[in-house]
Amino acid sequence: MKQPIGHHVTCSLADGRVIAPTLEDRRVLSRVVLEKSADHRLLGFNCADTHLHTDFAEPESVSMEVTHRIEASLHYRLHLPVAFVKAYPEPILKQQHLINCFNYILKQQPHHNLAWDPYLEASNLPDLLGLRLIGAHTIRHVKTLLPRVDRGR
């Protein structure tokens, strides 16, 4: 079998509730994802409401280990009353799939008709645009692995 370029991992809570309902919760979520992924090739993430999408240019074992650390930290820092269900990793086998996945993840709010996070603070878009510094490592990975993506896009 061909080695995947990366993995699109989706996680959600056992009862399907909103993971980060307040602006402050969404900011905590972003800090957690960006802190836990600092040593890994995270391209994008976004938490629409009931689920969190991540796009790692890593093997499945690494993607799932980082996801587990993110979930454990979110459970603790957001005082979540229920556990996360087993995260679902989808292998990314082609460059076009990597690009499509990146775009899909960053467009979750309009995809789900959500207007409650207008500045996409529960994603790494602010980092990619240079508006937040904690996720600057994602800029390097996007530039390297998604060279057709630029600020305008």
Question: Secondary structure elements and their pairing?
Answer:
Blueprint: E1 6-12, H1 23-36, E2 42-47, E3 51-56, H2 60-77, E4 88-92, H3 95-106, H4 108-111, H5 125-128, H6 136-145
Antiparallel strand pairs: 1-3, 1-4, 2-3
Helix pairs in contact: 1-2
Structural write-up:
With 153 residues, this protein is an alpha+beta fold. The protein has a single domain (6-145), classed as Alpha-Beta Plaits (2-Layer Sandwich), CATH 3.30.70. The protein has 6 helices and 4 strands. Strand 2 (42-47) and strand 3 form a beta hairpin. The termini are far apart.
Main sheet attributes: strand count, strand direction, barrel closure: 4 strands, antiparallel
Q: Provide the CATH architecture.
A: 2-Layer Sandwich
Helix/strand/pairing category = alpha+beta
Strand order in the sheet with the most strands: 2-3-1-4
Q: What is the number of strand segments?
A: 4
Number of helices: 6
The N- to C-terminal Cα distance equals 33 Å
The helix/strand order is: EHEEHEHHHH
Beta-strand proportion: 15-25%
> What is the CATH C-level name?
Alpha Beta
Briefly, what is this?
By secondary structure, this protein is of the alpha+beta class.
Features:
single chain, 153 residues, alpha+beta, Alpha-Beta Plaits, four-stranded antiparallel beta sheet, 41% helix, globular
